[in-house]
Write the structure tokens for this entry.
Amino acid sequence: MAREATEMLIAAVTPELPDTKTIRLEWPERFDPDFKTGQFITVFWPDAPGYKRAYSLSSCALDRGFYEVTIKREGRMGTRIVDWAKPGDKLGVLPPAGKFLPVYEPDKHLVCLAGGSGVTPFRGFVREATRRQLETKITVLYSVRTTNDIIFEHEFRELAQQNTNVNFYVTCTRLHEEDCWTGRRGRITADWVREQVHDMSNTIFYACGPNPLVEFAEDIVLRELGVPKPQMKTEKWG
């Protein structure tokens, strides 16, 4: 059965990077959907209903009254939204779907591997865990080209201060030697991931982003670290 679309007002457009914006979609009156953190919504412009694109929610299930998606200027839909979407515009929205869900159990450790805009659903993971004061440990390992490409840096670091079970680490892959970055450089590696894990059997790995990034993460986790496949969840973006 086809899922029914809902037309939603764009309530706010927040620049995150020069090519990335967070879009807040306001729920219509008496709209109160049941959904889970980590799911995605599918959006389309009312004047082009045949062309749809799915985006991971960067808000969490505790955020009521709106959805937020964080979109990079990529492809036809991403380019139109980043360059032209403004408050007062409307988008058609299909209900949340997907199984890229955080396992919020006290003894679990969620290790989240992300590159670029693939970090967006992990904002929702950390938001919900922090607001609910959960004991679940969450570690975000985030690969970007330069320090100018870090999405939600301030919020992640603020949440990590509020929640001692959260760690947020960034590695930069394309910095010049003279750049004054004291953090980690280079790609995500098996050794770096292994350093974060203290109980492999209770660790669940998540990877989100473009196909090459997710496949690279799968190779590290499943092949190099030898983690059983049921302990890894992925969300690929074509």
User: Anything to note?
Assistant: The chain has a mean pLDDT of 95. Residues 102 and 122 are 9 Å apart (CA to CA).
